[in-house]
Amino acid sequence: MSTPLLALEQLTVRYGGITALRDISLEVHTGEIVALLGANGAGKSTTLRAISQLVPAAAGTIRWNGGVINGIPVERTVRLGISHCPEGRRVLTRLSVNDNLDLGAWLRRDRAGIGRDLDRCFDLFPRLAERRHQLAGSLSGGEQQMLAIARSLMARPTLLMLDEPSLGLAPKLVAEVIGALANLHRDGLTLLLVEQNANAALAIADRAYVLVSGSLEQAGSAAALRADERVKAAYLGP
Known about the structure:
Number of helices: 10
CATH class: Alpha Beta
Oligomer: single chain
Largest sheet: 6 strands, mixed
Distance between the termini: 36 Å
Radius of gyration: 17 Å
CATH topology: Rossmann fold
Number of strands: 10
Low-confidence stretches: none
CATH superfamily: P-loop containing nucleotide triphosphate hydrolases
Order of helices and strands: EEEHEEHEHHHHEHEHEEHH
């Protein structure tokens, strides 16, 4: 097996006296979509925040291309190629769509490349092109989610981590967002996808992990987990 792009080895994260993650080990290989499933409070968002260095690891190791990245500055994770699209969109509502996208490229100096990536984002989400001069706060919830994803792409990541990108969206918009992620995957981008909508996530993922109360309970191919009776009962519905 090749060296994973990202590997967590017995990762533990605590908030005060509360253990949010306990001995989590997982891998993401280049070119994969890996889904991280679980109920509210399972530790999915904490996993992404630990990878981004937004919360410290109490124990365990985070590896990027084989090298340990525990404790590095948040800015350096972006420079390494890790882009984190957080839950809740968190667009800057008083700035325009264009300005939000420019901020996504704040560490870059390659103006020509930034321009090409901006065009790519507008190709991926044509509605953003139509609203590029509007304030982000005037966009619908679905459009703000598209903007949040596009802003993360402007860092030109090697790994895009997404936290609940379908949350609160109408089914038609969920299909549009998930379709855009599948297109990015076909273009070669590696994704780590946190989703409560397990059906949508497993439809495009290569592999998946299931977290329960901060512990890793199941792992396998997306097809295997979709067929697993425990996963179907807990997350997929009848």
